[in-house]
Amino acid sequence: MTTTAITPALSGTYTIDPAHSRIGFVARHAMVTKVRGSFNAFNGAVTVDADKPEQSSVDLSIDVDSIDTRNADRDGHLRTNDFLDVANHPTITFRSTDARFDGETLELAGDLTVRGVTQPVTVPFSFEGSATDPFGNQRLGFEGQHAISRKDYGITWNAALETGGVLVSDKIVLEFEISLVKNTNNA
């Protein structure tokens, strides 16, 4: 049975299922097209409190070295000091500081740390529903996106185009498609 509301029965602690989740990003390239990428390794713990949504929390860690834009040369460049500097900053983290839920949208505020720089962000998530999978696991689904300025995180490398503009946009859209699995110790 699938439900479309977060009810008290769904409260508890959850783990992000990386095999059924995606954490990605979109950047404009050469001012004319979008390049999409994702991080293939991440983990996170989520606490859901249906009665007091503001007490819900998220703790997410992303392995920067797992970046994948389907182009090995570009991925290699993104790992360097020009962009994410994986040698000195191997993880991107998000730790929530507040949560508000109106029944359809979860506004999750928190601290996003990229390249050692922490900035406050608020990501709106839509609740996609809940279901029990064939293995008896309680699952919740959320999708969200949020635009950031990469310059806010000290990522300033770029190249000017002969026709005007720059090679890589400052605006990066973060994309989240998250499947949570309820921990069995709070069933």
List keywords for this structure.
187 residues, mainly beta, Lipocalin, eight-stranded antiparallel barrel, 4% helix, 55% strand
Radius of gyration: 18 Å
Number of helices: 1
Distance between the terminal alpha carbons, to the nearest Å? 16 Å
Low-confidence stretches: none
Q: Biggest sheet, in brief? A: 8 strands, antiparallel, barrel
Which homologous superfamily in CATH is the superfamily? Lipid/polyisoprenoid-binding, YceI-like
| Structural class estimated from helices and strands | mainly beta
The count of DSSP E runs of length 2 or more, i.e. the number of strands, is 12
At the third CATH level, what is the topology name?
Lipocalin
- What percent strand? over 45%
Helix proportion: under 10%
Q: What's the helix-strand series?
A: EEEEEEEHEEEEE
For the record, the CATH class is: Mainly Beta
Q: If classified by CATH, what would the architecture be?
A: Beta Barrel
Number of domains: 1
Mean of all residue-level pLDDT scores: 90
Topology of this structure?
Blueprint: E1 2-3, E2 12-16, E3 22-29, E4 33-39, E5 42-48, E6 57-63, E7 67-68, H1 72-79, E8 91-101, E9 105-114, E10 117-132, E11 138-149, E12 168-182
Antiparallel strand pairs: 1-10, 2-5, 2-12, 3-4, 3-12, 4-7, 5-6, 6-8, 8-9, 9-10, 10-11, 11-12
Can you walk me through this structure?
The protein is mainly beta and 187 residues long. The chain has one domain (2-186): Lipocalin. It has one helix spanning 72-79, and strands at 2-3, 12-16, 22-29, 33-39, 42-48, 57-63, 67-68, 91-101, 105-114, 117-132, 138-149, 168-182. An eight-stranded antiparallel beta barrel has the order 2-5-6-8-9-10-11-12. It starts with a strand and ends in a 5-residue tail after the last strand. 22% of the residues are buried.
